[in-house]
Each structure stands twice: as structure tokens, then as C-alpha cells.
Specification:
about 270 residues, mainly beta, 14-stranded parallel beta sheet, 4-stranded parallel beta sheet, elongated
Length: about 270
């Protein structure tokens, strides 16, 4: 098994009809519409990590890809959805979309992600709809993160309606996020962090959530409702510095939970 790398920046056409598998890592960079991905239509498997980047608006030439043994990074492609990965049914580790034009997860047919699903700086992303078969994420679901730019068009987070189990969930400093809904099938999670939002007002859904390793909700300026987490079994709890969230409502919420760890009560919530 060997690595395969190609920079398509100055290429006008790529034709690799005999390339069916890559034993180790695959790196395709600088792929524009002129070079395109049609030359990779025979590719079925990558043994190691995959990296795909460029400015192409059509990546359907990769739709025959079935397995990636490690991570798969999709960077800066001008595609509107990940349907070009519709044939992918086995991914060994992380799936990351960074700086793309995807609007949703429409066409993603994966049932399991053994690593994490990370979505950063996708300025056209408006929902997580489309990943209708995804039931487990063994690693983390990262929607925004303090170290990366947010998804600037993500106002109402919907989707992930089939997800039953996730390692951790991070919603941190999503600049436009006003509401988190969905996750109606989710039963168990690791750490859940919701922090640093200036326009997030409501968190709902999570109707079937039974347990989480921890729940940390901090520094959300206009958040007024956390009833979605009522009655869960949880390890550590920290709900602090949410200036519009009534402390009395938090107290009632905490009393409804079964807490097996520590309740960190530092205050900073609304006095009501």
C-alpha cells in the first residue's frame, strides 16, 4: 500500500480509470472545475486518511468511493451538499467539513461514524438535515468551536433525527445560532457543551435523551429555556453565567435530574 497525492491546480483534465484503491493516504488538492473529479470514478477504497480540497462545484466523480480507513477531510469545495459521498458506507475515523459551501448533510448515507463529525466555517450551512441513516457517532459532534470560525448561516439547528448515540456534543460560539432543535431519537451522550452564544434563545428536542456524562451550559446571553434536559441522568452539571436564564428554572431543572457527579453552581444567571 502506498500514498497517492495529486495537485490539480494547473491541470485541465484528470483521467485515472485504473485507480480503484489507494493502500494508504489519499490527498487531492487544488481540484477545480476544469480538472474535475470525473477521473476518479473508478476509485472504491482508501486504506488510510483521505483529504479532498479545491474550488470544484461538482465532486460526483467520487460517488463510487465505498470505504475510507481513517479520517476524511473535505476542505473548501464549492459543493452544495455531501451527496458525492453517498456511496461511502464505511469510515474508520473522523469526517470533517471545513470552509465548504454545503447547505445541509443531504445525501450522506453513513450509518456510523467511528470518530467525530466536525463542521467548521461552512458559511452556507443552514441545517443538519439529510443524514437520515446516521445512528451513532462514536467520537464527538462538533458544530462550532472556540478555536475555529462558526457556520455563519446556521440559525436554526435541525436534523440528526436518527442519531441514537454520540460521544460528545459541542455547540460553542456559533455566531448566528438562535435555536437548537432535533435530536429526537438521541438516547445517550457523553459531554454536552452549549456555551458562548449571543443569540441562542432556545434548546428543544432531545425528547428521548436518557443520560449524559456531563452537561455544561455557560455564557449564553439570551437563552431562556433548557427544559429539553429535564429528568435525565447526568454526571457533572454546570449551568452558569446565562444572563437571561432564570435561576429558579435552573433549580427546578436540576432537581428533576439524577446527578451522579458534581453540580457546579457558580451563579451568574438571571435572578428570578
Amino acid at each position: 500500500g502506498e500514498d497517492f497525492s495529486l495537485d490539480g491546480t494547473n491541470l485541465q483534465r484528470i483521467s485515472l480509470p485504473r485507480l480503484q484503491s489507494v493502500g494508504e493516504d489519499l490527498a487531492l488538492s487544488g481540484i477545480n472545475d476544469e480538472a474535475g473529479f470525473s477521473g476518479f470514478s473508478s476509485l472504491r477504497s482508501v486504506g488510510g486518511d483521505g483529504h479532498v480540497s479545491g474550488t470544484a462545484t461538482d465532486a460526483s466523480g467520487l460517488s463510487g468511493l465505498r470505504t475510507v480507513g481513517g479520517d476524511l477531510d473535505v476542505v473548501a469545495l464549492n459543493v452544495s451538499d455531501p451527496s458525492f459521498l453517498g456511496g461511502l458506507d464505511e469510515l474508520g475515523d473522523h469526517l470533517r467539513f471545513y470552509g465548504t459551501d454545503i447547505r445541509s448533510l443531504e445525501g450522506l448515507e453513513l450509518e456510523h461514524i467511528h470518530g467525530s463529525l466536525k463542521l467548521y466555517s461552512n458559511d452556507e450551512l443552514t441545517s443538519l438535515e439529510g443524514a437520515d441513516k446516521l445512528t451513532t457517532i462514536s467520537g464527538s459532534l462538533w458544530i462550532c468551536d472556540t478555536d475555529y470560525a462558526g457556520n455563519g448561516s446556521l440559525v436554526r439547528l435541525t436534523g440528526m433525527d436518527a442519531l441514537v448515540s454520540v460521544g460528545d456534543m459541542y455547540f460553542e460560539e456559533c455566531e448566528a445560532l438562535e435555536e437548537i432543535v432535533g435530536f429526537g431519537a438521541l438516547q445517550e451522550a457523553g459531554d454536552i457543551r452549549i456555551s458562548g452564544h449571543s443569540v441562542l434563545e432556545r434548546v428543544s428536542g432531545f425528547e428521548r435523551l436518557e443520560s449524559a456524562d456531563s452537561l455544561r451550559v455557560t455564557s449564553n446571553e439570551i437563552l431562556t429555556d433548557l427544559g429539553a434536559f429535564r429528568g435525565i441522568t447526568v454526571g457533572d452539571v454546570a449551568i452558569n453565567y446565562n444572563s437571561s436564564l432564570c435561576q429558579s428554572d435552573i433549580d427546578e431543572l436540576v432537581q428533576s435530574m439524577t446527578i451522579t457527579g458534581t453540580h457546579y453552581d457558580f451563579g451568574g444567571n438571571k435572578d428570578c
